[in-house]
Design a protein that fits this description.
By secondary structure, the protein is mainly β. It has 3 helices and 11 strands.
Length: about 140
């Protein structure tokens, strides 16, 4: 009979302590909208660009990325907004990994919503990529 510890087999406990596997899961979207849930601990994103606005919220851990020439950090509950065509990377800032949820919005959707006015921040000085207060993410995205 295998040894048990509070109902768990002792030989299987190591699996519960192993790191969570990296994953990228895409969810159903709508025309011009894509969404994903990402968890990374062992993998990092190489520098890349998107053709859409990316609006993400860090759900767990600490996220770090290079964007607009500076290293950025996002904590749980903080939003980050990346603009189309801007190079960035992404990785865990600690050994425990990080997770985030993100929406990719086609620029045409924003342009239509603005009644054809200029898209936000295009061609002028821009603020940093993330909300400074964790409560912003909780308020707009239902993050707890």
């Amino acid at each position: 009979m295998p040894e048990r510890l509070w109902g768990a087999e002792a030989g299987r406990l190591e699996r519960s302590c192993s790191p969570r596997p990296d994953s990228v899961r895409f969810g159903a979207g709508a025309p011009g909208v894509e969404r994903a849930a990402v968890y990374l601990s062992a993998t990092a994103f190489a520098p890349h660009q998107h053709d859409a606005y990316a609006i993400g919220i860090t759900a767990a851990g600490v996220q770090t990325f290079r964007y607009r020439g500076a290293r950025r950090v996002c904590l749980p509950g903080q939003l980050h907004i990346l603009h189309p065509g801007e190079t960035h990377d992404g990785a865990a800032a600690t050994g425990t990994g990080f997770g985030y949820r993100i929406l990719y919005l086609a620029p045409e959707l924003l342009r239509d919503a603005l009644g054809g006015r200029a898209l936000p921040f295009r061609g002028r000085s821009r603020p940093g990529p993330h909300a400074r207060q964790p409560g912003h993410g909780r308020a707009c995205c239902g993050y707890r």
